[in-house]
């Protein structure tokens, strides 16, 4: 997970308000921003081109414009990323994208669930889990899945501030605590 600065929230909120007031489709904007943030995170060359002070601002803007044109990004996103570049905040785009996703999900009435499994979950299992969470909450749910073999078996699901831990590791820890308190 990326580090979020207080500015990340302010920029994400400003982007959400701008997009909402101009009628931009939040889902396509969210996806385009997430794609860009992912590219910055995974591409050393792109990160270097945007953050290295040996490149002029005009050169960095040219790289950004070329990338946005090739990606067919919405004009709102193009202007927003140019602003981040001007303000020296482009390095925070990953945190901004995460906050924007949360805000857009909240606006759409969608919950975000973070699932950690001991093994990789296939698409059918992920879909079944998503449907079960939607049935339990009565709201639309978007899930992200990570793998952590230290869970041994089972799942750990975080839905907002609520954590459901059905992992073998958690069960063993509870068992250990019960034994220690009885001893």
Low-confidence stretches: none
- Evaluate the radius of gyration: 20 Å
The main pleated sheet reads as: 4 strands, mixed
Strand and helix order: HHHHHHEHEEEH
Termini separation (Å)?
Answer: 39 Å
Strand content: 5-15%
Biggest sheet, spatial arrangement of strands: 2-1-3-4
**CATH third-level topology of the largest domain:** Peroxidase, domain 1
Helix content: 55-70%
- Molecular shape: elongated
Count of beta strands: 4
Query: Could you say what the CATH architecture of the largest domain is?
Result: Orthogonal Bundle
Task: Describe the protein.
This protein is an alpha+beta fold. 62% of the residues lie in helices and 14% in strands. It folds into two domains: 6-106, Peroxidase, domain 1 (Orthogonal Bundle), CATH 1.10.520.20; 110-182, Glutaredoxin, CATH 3.40.30. The chain has a four-stranded mixed sheet, with helices on both faces. The longest helix is centred in the N-terminal third of the chain and has 17 residues, at 6-22. The two termini are 39 Å apart. 21% of the residues are buried. The model has no long low-confidence stretch (mean pLDDT 92).
Q: What does the secondary structure layout of this molecule look like, with pairings?
A:
Blueprint: H1 6-22, H2 26-42, H3 44-51, H4 57-71, H5 75-86, H6 93-107, E1 110-117, H7 123-137, E2 140-147, E3 155-159, E4 162-165, H8 168-182
Parallel strand pairs: 1-2
Antiparallel strand pairs: 1-3, 3-4
Helix pairs in contact: 1-6, 2-6, 3-4, 4-5
């Amino acid at each position: 997970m990326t580090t979020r600065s207080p500015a990340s929230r302010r920029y994400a909120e400003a982007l959400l308000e701008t997009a909402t007031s101009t009628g931009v489709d939040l889902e396509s904007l969210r996806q385009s921003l997430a794609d860009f943030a992912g590219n910055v995170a995974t591409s050393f060359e792109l990160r270097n081109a945007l953050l290295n002070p040996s490149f002029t601002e005009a050169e960095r803007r040219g790289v950004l414009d070329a990338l946005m044109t090739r990606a067919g990004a919405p004009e709102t996103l193009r202007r927003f990323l140019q602003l981040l570049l001007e303000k020296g905040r482009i390095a925070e785009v990953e945190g901004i994208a995460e906050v924007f996703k949360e805000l857009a999900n909240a606006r759409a009435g969608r919950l975000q669930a973070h699932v950690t499994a001991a093994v990789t979950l296939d698409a059918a299992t992920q879909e079944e889990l998503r449907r079960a969470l939607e049935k339990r909450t009565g709201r639309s749910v978007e899930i992200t899945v990570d793998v952590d073999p230290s869970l041994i078996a089972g799942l750990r699901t975080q839905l907002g501030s609520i954590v459901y831990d059905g992992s073998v590791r958690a069960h063993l820890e509870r068992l250990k605590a019960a034994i220690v308190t009885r001893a």
